[in-house]
Amino acid sequence: MAAAHAGADAIGLVFYQKSPRSVSVAQAKRIISALPPFVTTVGLFVDASRCEIDETLDALPLDLLQFHGDETAAECSRYRRPYMKALRMKPGEDIAARCHEYASASAILLDTYVQGIPGGTGQAFDWAQVPQGLCKPIVLAGGLAVENVANAIARVRPYAVDVSGGVEASKGIKDHEKVRAFIDAVRRG
């Protein structure tokens, strides 16, 4: 709610039980029902089973799906909902080719690569690695915080930015002042 009241365009609901930010369907339902209008709800999944995703979608009116694992484009598309695919910035990764691979995606989220961790590392990657002229809108993630988000926006010119750890008081607990300050910094960027 703090993010919505501070002016966030979207909030993410993490359906990955290994994450300290994970929410249950019941918690997500309460959050979604309390949101003001025009805030996009994003459901984040990491290599979830089709059954798990279907059950979540049956219970919740999610606007956008975010796939953060090894899901193929066909797997991401099967839910007939807009989605974005998270790509981790591995050394030597051909991001332009990967964007074409996910032609059905609404956007591509670029995150930091850390072996064995699907995201949420709190570490930034070298933004110079992001190629210009990609065929999909880019959502920039990975280690963003109040201190660096304006620079990240200036360097990458993403469609949107995604933050989690950079606005937390502790793992999984958002700091309302950091949320407000981050959104202010994005608007200035």
UniProtKB/TrEMBL annotation:
Keyword line: Amino-acid biosynthesis, Aromatic amino acid biosynthesis, Isomerase, Tryptophan biosynthesis
Pfam families membership: PRAI (PF00697)
Keyword Amino-acid biosynthesis part of the UniProt annotation: yes
Residue stretches making up the N-(5'phosphoribosyl) anthranilate isomerase (PRAI) domain: 3-184
EC number: 5.3.1.24
Enzymatic reactions: N-(5-phospho-beta-D-ribosyl)anthranilate = 1-(2-carboxyphenylamino)-1-deoxy-D-ribulose 5-phosphate
SUPFAM superfamilies reported in the protein's UniProt record: Ribulose-phoshate binding barrel
Pathway entry: Amino-acid biosynthesis; L-tryptophan biosynthesis; L-tryptophan from chorismate: step 3/5
GO molecular function annotations of the record: isomerase activity
Sequence similarity: Belongs to the TrpF family.
Protein name: N-(5'-phosphoribosyl)anthranilate isomerase
Phylogenetic classification of the source organism: Bacteria, Pseudomonadati, Pseudomonadota, Gammaproteobacteria, Pseudomonadales
